[in-house]
């Protein structure tokens, strides 16, 4: 998988060769995960479509010479990360857009790989190559019980995901039916007539903070999502992963943006969201669920309930416009290729990205001006 060249669309930049790290361009990709809406309430299909349209509408006027929506020195694209793959959501977002790449998240233990491979290739064709996969090996015990599927021991979850991915990739690349007899699957005559659009498979994304999870992501994914506890600790961690990876990878962090014109206004907005309107009981419940599903100390939630409220467990980026761009610069300097940023309200806040944040990123050298 590491040797297979991946190209999402005509405007996707090449993954840089880590052997010559001095050539690293001072850029930072921004990924938007609009699976939630106002103040982290329930997501809905129509909102996902609205966000997709608004994303292209907001950013088409502030992109490089290509007509894509990524933030890079050459050409890139804006990503929309979904909570799940569904017949309603992904085709809806792909059908009303022309440039963004839509990522679907699959909880691998709960979805048959033969079904998933065919479903994903249909989405890949519907978007003419603008579909990618985020693989989750599972941790929520209650979700598994709801499906009647016992949760596996921690390390075995990734072994299962690896075999699951063998089935999926085999269907994508094999021209003839094949059999697969492994520890978890015993399949006969596996085949998919439909192959990935344009001859290039969907981009694969995976996260993992445990040694086993990170090893899987470095070997089998094209992009590695990682938690950001403190920016100052990022550089050595990313450097270690680049040394371990068998091929060049992209490394993305995760954060949540609470931004207003000035630091004072952002702090006041933060206080309103977290201390006046925050559902603290719900957060404590969410933290208790997470603690049940992890077996590695590296994966245990170390953030407080406040950080969970402020950034859904990711890195909180709080401040004025200039403060936010400075945080992005620090992340880029530490070695991150990008960051998935959540917004409090996507429809209301995306114009802020277009008019305030992106121009400042350009002036700071984090994005080449149009």
Q: What is the straight-line distance between the termini?
A: 34 Å
CATH superfamily: Luciferase-like domain
Annotation, overall tally of beta strands: 11
- The amount of beta strand, in percent, is 15-25%
The name of the CATH topology is TIM Barrel
Secondary-structure map with pairings?
Elements: E1 29-32, H1 45-59, E2 79-81, H2 89-95, E3 101-107, H3 113-126, E4 131-136, H4 141-147, H5 154-173, E5 178-181, E6 186-190, E7 203-207, H6 211-220, E8 223-225, H7 234-244, E9 250-259, H8 263-276, H9 280-292, H10 305-311, E10 315-319, H11 321-334, E11 338-343, H12 346-363
Descriptive report:
Helix 1 (45-59) packs parallel to helix 12 and helix 9 crosses helix 10 (305-311). The protein has an 8-stranded parallel beta barrel, surrounded by 6 helices. Strands 5-6 form a two-stranded antiparallel ribbon. It is an alpha/beta fold. Helices cover 41% and strands 16% of the residues. It has a single domain (25-263, 318-363), classed as TIM Barrel (Alpha-Beta Barrel), CATH 3.20.20.30. The protein has helices spanning 45-59, 89-95, 113-126, 141-147, 154-173, 211-220, 234-244, 263-276, 280-292, 305-311, 321-334, 346-363, and strands at residues 29-32, 79-81, 101-107, 131-136, 178-181, 186-190, 203-207, 223-225, 250-259, 315-319, 338-343. Mean pLDDT is 79; it is low at 1-13, 18-25, 35-45, 59-85 and 296-302.
